[in-house]
Amino acid sequence: MKQLTKAEEEVMQILWQLQKCNVAAIIKELPEPKPAYNTVSTIVRILESKGFVDHEQEGKGYLYFPILKKSDYSNQSINKLVDGYFQGSFKSMVSFFMKKNDMSLSELESIMNDIKTAESAAANKKSKK
């Protein structure tokens, strides 16, 4: 899967949020100063060429929509981050964020509970197969 530039990712976040929209709607959601219509239109076409976005005709214009799920891109991005900066170790990543972001014990316990819940769900799913 190809990586997104910062501008492309910003547009994708809006598309994931709105699900289907035209370029004008994307621009409306972008922070000030608003980029030019042609700039956003070009970014959307690049996203389309990368396989992240598709379109359908509506009147004289187009509605764009994501064809890649946000969760799929997030997983790929997190794995790349872990591999690139933490030698593939999620433990090292969590330890880093815990130290650098002054994570509280209750936040860490909450994360551990989420992991246990996910492990239980995965084990149940596996046993049902």
Automatic annotation (TrEMBL):
<keyword id="KW-0805">Transcription regulation</keyword>
<dbReference type="InterPro" id="IPR036390">
    <property type="entry name" value="WH_DNA-bd_sf"/>
</dbReference>
<dbReference type="GO" id="GO:0045892">
    <property type="term" value="P:negative regulation of DNA-templated transcription"/>
</dbReference>
<dbReference type="InterPro" id="IPR005650">
    <property type="entry name" value="BlaI_family"/>
</dbReference>
<dbReference type="GO" id="GO:0003677">
    <property type="term" value="F:DNA binding"/>
</dbReference>
<dbReference type="InterPro" id="IPR036388">
    <property type="entry name" value="WH-like_DNA-bd_sf"/>
</dbReference>
<dbReference type="Pfam" id="PF03965">
    <property type="entry name" value="Penicillinase_R"/>
</dbReference>
<comment type="similarity">
    <text>Belongs to the BlaI transcriptional regulatory family.</text>
</comment>
<protein>
    <submittedName>
        <fullName>BlaI/MecI/CopY family transcriptional regulator</fullName>
    </submittedName>
</protein>
<keyword id="KW-0804">Transcription</keyword>
<keyword id="KW-0238">DNA-binding</keyword>
<dbReference type="InterPro" id="IPR011991">
    <property type="entry name" value="ArsR-like_HTH"/>
</dbReference>
